[in-house]
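Here is a typical protein record:
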Amino acid sequence: MDRSAEKERLREVRLAKEEEAKRRQARLARAYAVAAVLAIALVVVGVVLVMGAGNDSSSADGPAFGPHYEGLEERRLAAGVPTMAEGGGSHFHPLLAVYANGKPVTVPANIGIDPTRPPTEMAGLHTHDVTGTIHNEAGSGATLGDFFAVWGVPFSGKRLGPYRAGAGKVVRMWVDGAPSQSFGRLSLEDEQRIVIAFGPPSDPAPPLDK
């Protein structure tokens, strides 16, 4: 093989290697682009899911506000709420209404009444229907926080169930029509009218009757 033919062969080999390197770089660039798009999509989905869990306004009811029988006995004991058998020497009825993002939350029937246990073991703070009527047979020292503990729904000035204050939304409370900052410390009284709402502070006070 003469020198010119050898030089041509070497040039073709070099060009072929350069072309393969370009194709490899193009494949890597496409792979990186796809990975970046997928990463962005995952981030967006995660943000949507988190926002939906914390501030979803499409439906206020759901498992978060169910009667929560699992762990009821432990919560009752931790809150110091007596059973019906133990008794508290009183029986009166505050009325509770709960709202989240402008939508009513159902206070479910049979909070504090585990259907698998005898009636005498029901908590002294309980409900029998979905009217929001709290039956207080736990004594005059029972608080709204005790009721939410029995219910199994987190409640404070910063939280209402799955909803947390932040991003322009707050937890507010009214007692007998007046704003209150007592939250869980509120002592329950007969015929007390309690409204709790999560949402923008500019929203008007929601009604007691949903």
Residues 41-59 have pLDDT under 50 and may be disordered. The radius of gyration is 31 Å. The helical segments are 3-55, 72-79, 144-151. The first strand starts at residue 95 and ends at 100.
